Amino acid sequence: MSLEPSQSNPFGCFILLALIFFFGVFGFVAIEQESVGAPMLDTPAVPAQARPGAVKPITPVTLMSPLPDGAALLGVDSAVLEVRGPGQVVVQVSGTWPDGCDFPVEVNTIVTPELVNVIVYRVVPPDVFCTMMLQPYSGEIDISAAFASAGSAANPARVPVMVNGVTANPLTK
């Protein structure tokens, strides 16, 4: 049986419609799965707590170099080094946290005869959702223990102190 131009094939259109339907349905399913992303877990969000703007002194100084997983570093705007008396050295730090969560501030110090490196951070658990906002921070960090552990090799008047990569300027009275 040969088809002539005047005769129409009733199944030719059916195949074309079936292909359009197949790619249309499964094409949208694939696009929808890509836009959804990873499946949500049934873990409740932990609400962030408000941070008061008062200066809080931080006295414990941990002497270790590697940072734990989930550490959020403080973005330091200014750091001022103050020697208050024999053996008492503090750094006044102000800056911003990269999120709105309120977790305890932790401090690591690395002391060498050429440099005292202070790292200010918070550990944010991976299952906690934080608001995306900059949170102001100001605090006072007692680094007397860091200078005491270095002995006479580190002199606060001569050894530079860096806080998260920012050099602490000495307090001028």
Descriptive report:
This protein is 18% helix and 33% strand. The protein has 173 residues and is an alpha/beta fold. It has a five-stranded mixed sheet, with helices on one face. Strands 2, 5, 6, 8 and 9 form a five-stranded mixed sheet that branches. The relative contact order is 0.21. The protein folds into two domains: 9-40; 56-170, Immunoglobulin-like (Sandwich), CATH 2.60.40. The protein contains two helices and ten strands, in the order αβββββββαβββ. Mean pLDDT is 73; it is low at 30-64. The protein has helices at residues 12-36, 144-150; strands spanning 56-58, 71-73, 75-85, 88-97, 105-111, 116-123, 135-142, 161-163, 166-167, 169-170. The longest helix has 25 residues, at 12-36. It is rod-shaped and about 105 Å long. The termini are far apart. A hairpin with a 4-residue loop joins strand 5 and strand 6.
Describe the protein's topology.
Elements: H1 12-36, E1 56-58, E2 71-73, E3 75-85, E4 88-97, E5 105-111, E6 116-123, E7 135-142, H2 144-150, E8 161-163, E9 166-167, E10 169-170
Parallel strand pairs: 1-7, 3-10, 6-8
Antiparallel strand pairs: 2-6, 3-4, 4-7, 5-6, 8-9
Which strand order do you get reading across the main beta sheet?
A: 1-7-4-3-10
State the share of residues found in helices, binned by percent.
10-25%
Q: Count of helical segments? A: 2
Total separate domains: 2
Large-scale geometry? rod-shaped
Largest sheet: 5 strands, mixed
CATH-level-2 architecture of the largest domain: Sandwich
Taking the alpha carbons of the first and last residues, their distance comes to: 107 Å
Q: Are there runs of 5+ residues with pLDDT below 50, and where?
A: 30-64
Which class do the helix and strand fractions yield?
Answer: alpha/beta
Mean pLDDT: 73
Highest-level CATH class of the largest domain? Mainly Beta
How many extended strands? 10
Per the CATH scheme, the topology name of the largest domain is: Immunoglobulin-like
H/E element string?
A: HEEEEEEEHEEE
β-sheet strand percentage: 25-35%
Q: Give the radius of gyration.
A: 30 Å
